[in-house]
Write a structure and sequence with these properties.
Protein name: Dolichyl-phosphate beta-glucosyltransferase
Oligomer: single chain
Helix content: 40-55%
CATH superfamily: Spore Coat Polysaccharide Biosynthesis Protein SpsA, Chain A
Largest sheet: 7 strands, mixed
Strand order of the largest sheet: 5-4-3-6-8-7-9
CATH class: Alpha Beta
CATH topology: Spore Coat Polysaccharide Biosynthesis Protein SpsA, Chain A
Membrane topology: Single-pass membrane protein
Number of strands: 9
Keywords: Endoplasmic reticulum, Glycosyltransferase, Membrane, Signal-anchor, Transferase, Transmembrane, Transmembrane helix
Pathway: Protein modification; protein glycosylation
Family: Belongs to the glycosyltransferase 2 family.
Strand content: 5-15%
């Protein structure tokens, strides 16, 4: 009996090893090249408040603003105004209190089928195109791809990623700024502060079904086991990066959809960019584009493939790449 159990255990180990080899081969063969840093001709411009086209700046230009806020938006005509009203109210009051503070908000319409761009452009007309700009993508790239396009068009010394649903209270940007400053001295001027909902985990579990809770724990386990160590919440859409950290990480990004946050932080840890995780106020907002089961399944596959593709050399990290 013992001999049979040993044989079965050995067979199981062989099958697991064979499965890992097969998955690694599939990951290597199916690995796409790094998403091209290329803009459609129409994506090289933005329309100013007067309706005239102007050329977008580049992340590799010298910064001219203290803060850039990048808002990825896909079919967000209904939720975007609430977020924009809160953000701009805060930013305007901060600038009034401190005239040296300068900012811009870049709304990236990720190929929406609704009136997202028109809704966003009203804020451009109200506040001026020096403060609010709308970048309309010709096709849907995914959240990560949309943020990257906004980041590469930004002028800020610091760049904030903020979701269009307004789930995170915008004034919490001050918490991220403090977290970023606490990381000084920054190596090569690079640092990242991640908003975190980890402190709300017990409360969220109480409201979720057992199935969604199981998916959440499974995803968190895969993140920590395969990709990112020491960060409890990689998926919060509220992140603040120095300009140098943004150019380094986003120019190396492969994943453009939901799991892009994980690869972004994986890249940051690879380059030894210091990361702070900061608790923020967060409220779940209806209208999420995330389909629980299939989105989590896709992200789980992406996590496994992120690890395997870097491990096998199918993907390699480079210092910087410029967009054309």
């Amino acid at each position: 009996m013992a001999a049979l159990l040993l044989q079965l255990a050995g067979l199981g180990a062989v099958l697991v090893a064979a499965a890992l080899v097969l998955i690694s081969i599939v990951a290597f063969i199916t690995a796409t090249k790094m998403s091209p840093l290329h803009r459609h001709e129409e994506e090289k411009f933005f329309v100013n408040a007067k309706g005239q086209k102007e050329t977008l700046p580049s992340i590799w230009d010298s910064p001219t603003k203290q803060l850039s806020v990048v808002v990825p938006s896909y079919n967000e005509e209904e939720r975007l105004p609430v977020m924009m009203d809160e953000a701009l109210d805060y930013l305007e009051k901060r600038q009034k209190h401190d005239p040296t503070f300068t900012y811009e908000v870049i709304v990236v319409d990720d190929g929406s089928k609704d009136q997202t761009s028109k809704v966003a452009f009203k804020y451009c007309q109200k506040y001026g195109s020096d403060k609010v700009r709308v970048l309309t993508l010709m096709k849907n790239r995914g959240k990560g791809g949309a943020i990257r396009m906004g980041v590469f068009s930004s002028r800020g010394r610091k760049i904030l990623m903020a979701d269009a649903d307004g789930a995170t209270k915008f004034p919490d940007v001050e918490k991220l700024e403090k977290g970023l400053n606490d990381l000084q001295p920054w190596p090569d001027q690079m640092a990242i502060a991640c908003g975190s909902r980890a402190h709300l985990e017990k409360e969220s579990i109480a409201k979720r079904s057992y199935f969604r809770t199981l998916l959440m724990y499974g995803f968190h386990f895969l993140v920590r086991f395969l990709c990112v160590k020491g960060i409890r919440d990689t998926q919060c859409g509220f992140k603040l990066l120095t300009r140098e950290a943004a150019s380094r990480t986003f120019s190396s990004l492969h994943i453009e959809r939901w799991a892009f946050d994980v690869e972004l932080l994986y890249i940051a840890q690879y380059f030894k960019i210091p990361i702070a995780e900061i608790a923020v106020n967060w409220t779940e907002i209806e209208g999420s584009k995330l389909v629980p089961f299939w989105s989590w399944l896709q992200m789980g596959k992406d996590l496994l493939f992120i690890r395997l593709r870097y491990l096998t050399g199918a993907w390699r990290l480079v210092q910087t790449r410029k967009m054309n």
